[in-house]
Amino acid sequence: MVRKKVNVHGDGVRSRNEETEWEKRSDDAPTPKLRLRIAYGGLRYEISVSCMSSFLEVKILSVETGLQVDEQSLVYRGRERENGEYLDICGVKDRSNLVLIEDLSSIQRRFIQMRRNAKIQTATGAINDIILQLDHLAQQIHTYATLS
């Protein structure tokens, strides 16, 4: 990884030294790395990716959220982006803000799965109660059979 100092001047907006990270490609040509700001609910964090990465790669690096890749949706400039879209083609720049949201279909799937699990646990508890009662009755029958 190569670091390059860049002086930014113009319109008085920024006049400080910034470091830009560069990543070596297989053909030894450096490609700049982007620092992206990811917002997920109240969580804010920053990740560093190649400018030639796709939104899928950003989702994979967003492990801090605890969401699976298929449960995530990334929004950039007000539009939900597809996994196959590339950052540089969509105009993502260094220190751009992305919003990570949980996919609505995954919320519905998780809710349905939770309801199924609750029903299974209720049925399992009822079966366990019946098994305990049968064991108790079998023990009573055995006791009566040995007394007679």
TrEMBL record:
PROSITE patterns: UBIQUITIN_2 (PS50053). GO terms for cellular component: cytoplasm. SUPFAM superfamilies: Ubiquitin-like. Residues 11-26 have a biased composition (Basic and acidic residues). Residues 1-26 are annotated as: Disordered. InterPro entries: BAG_chaperone_regulator, Ubiquitin-like_dom, Ubiquitin-like_domsf. One of its GO terms (molecular function) is adenyl-nucleotide exchange factor activity. This is BAG family molecular chaperone regulator 1-like. The gene is LOC107469181.
